[in-house]
Automatic annotation (TrEMBL):
This is Inosine triphosphate pyrophosphatase. Its EC number is 3.6.1.66. Binds 1 divalent metal cation per subunit; can use either Mg(2+) or Mn(2+). ITP binds at residues 9-14, 50, 66-67, 142-145, 165, 170-171. CDD domains: HAM1. It comes from Paratrimastix pyriformis. The keyword Magnesium applies. It catalyses: XTP + H2O = XMP + diphosphate + H(+); dITP + H2O = dIMP + diphosphate + H(+); ITP + H2O = IMP + diphosphate + H(+). InterPro entries: ITPase, ITPase-like_fam, RdgB/HAM1.
Length: 190
């Protein structure tokens, strides 16, 4: 029986999305809430270090996830600090940040990092979804989803059904790369 993949999260919404995307491929996912430090720096470096730290506390393969919302007018900010910007400013404040800029484009970015076990190398998977920042629309149940409208769609992430969002989102793109990697390395779960 293969080992389950431990997703380090306390966020029920993220866990649900990850399970919906990975378990359809036969990859068993469990969650564990591990207290990790809030790191600063480049999003990929943050993800790799976060996963390395988590692997030291969990027996078996682990994944961590870090999400960024990168405003192009601000050269990628708020980026990995979006959680704190949202908490302090709310959706309206996140829109006001761009008030002086014509460019409202942004990239939703998700980086899943995988480590097969303690002391082993961490592999990051970067998924991006281009879009733009809009006034909040839709349910206010999942982070900054109400203000992000992906390119080619008239709806924000919050307005979309789960099936559509899980097909096109930054998270699904990152998980798609992770899924392909895991399926091509079954020995990591022996």
């Amino acid at each position: 029986m293969p080992k389950p993949l431990t997703f380090i999260t306390g966020n029920a919404n993220k866990l649900r999305e990850v399970k919906e995307i990975l378990e359809q491929s036969g990859i068993s996912v469990v969650s564990q809430n591990v207290d990790l430090p809030e790191l600063q720096g480049d999003p990929t470096d943050i993800s790799v270090e976060k996963c390395r730290l988590a692997s030291e506390q969990v027996d078996g393969p682990v994944i961590t996830e870090d999400t960024s919302l990168c405003y192009n007018a601000l050269h990628g900010l708020p980026g990995p600090y979006i959680k704190w910007f949202l908490k302090s400013l709310g959706h309206e404040g996140l829109n006001r940040i761009l008030a002086g800029y014509e460019d409202k484009s942004a990239d939703a970015m998700c980086i899943f990092a995988f480590c097969p076990g303690k002391g082993q190398s961490v592999v990051p998977f970067v998924g991006k979804c281009p879009g733009r920042i809009v006034p909040a629309r839709g349910p206010n149940t999942f982070g900054w989803d109400p203000i992000f409208q992906p390119d080619g769609f008239a709806e924000t992430f919050a307005e979309m059904g789960a099936a559509t969002k899980n097909r096109i989102s930054h998270r699904s793109r990152s998980l798609g790369m992770l899924r392909e990697y895991l399926q091509s390395h079954p020995e990591l779960f022996a």
